[in-house]
Amino acid sequence: MEPGLEDVSNPDVIVVGGGPAGCAAAIGCAQFGLKVILIESKPFPRTHPGETLHPGVEPLLKQLGVLEPVLAAGFLRHQGNWVQWSAESEFVPFGEDDSGAWLGFQAWRADFDAILLNRVREIGVKVIQPCRASRLVMDGCRVTGVETSQGTFWAAKIIDAAGDHHWLAQQLGLQIQYHSPRLIAYYGYVTGECPVRDHAPAIVADSCGWTWTAKVRCLRRATPTQLYQWTRLSFVEQKIAKDWLPNEFLGLKIYQAMRAANVTWRIVSQPAGYGYFLVGDAAMVLDPTSSHGVLKAIMSGIWVSHSIASELLGNLTQQQAIDHYCLWIHNWFRHDVKNLSSLIAKLPSPPFWI
To answer: Are 231 and 179 in contact (CB under 8 A)?
Structure first.
């Protein structure tokens, strides 16, 4: 073990992955008084798509102790989204209460993820970064530790928050259940001026899929310029040109090369088991139509922290903690699949598999 890692012996929990799901799980476990290690393979800051946060994330951010720094970060706010699905374009607000209109965030993920990871450190979690998790350590059918680029660590619980390549599930040979054909979302960034997109994101459907556009930040240079993000998802497997842009962004300057993400609808059959839990995209993936990916990641991390604490503190048996979490994840996934299927069925030419 490398120097400086002597104080990470005998943790209760090891979290693999430092994104929103992993940070929420680590913070939640630490709030229950558990000793936690978080392993993150990449140095920060890092870029990541998924900047749009629903207003429902605010109570969760407050629970994690990061609402104030998130509000102070100066992220763009908006009252809703423009939606053009099966009819004319309309503005769909998030809602309001006695305090006023609910506001979503366009949170630049490099800054948002750094805020969460700073809170992880602040609350006493040992962060080992960069550190690559390579293999699980097993004792019979139970996960007991992780082999990493900085040594082997053991814990009562291992949380896979490493994303949609399903690192832990692949090693254990867990079944991954697919609920759609292969779906690939392409996304990219452009700079310039697009006033029509400055006040709220938009999702526009067509006969093949949908396109999402949003302003995500203002780049502070000699002459301030706006940074916009687009995502394109086709429900029929279809490659697009490397220089493709939505119509409203034509003429703007490409900021980053186009990238792709596998957003095939899928869920790991057993998202919890002896010694392990899966959170965020490691547990389930749906296409980002609803822009709830970060919200789901944080919610699953918080839920897992409650499950682990309840078990380790003697309020639940191990099997109860496993069963409750698996049921919650599967019910949530089925609910979202039903809603997404109903939404996609309203397209002018819905795909055959809906």
So the answer is: no
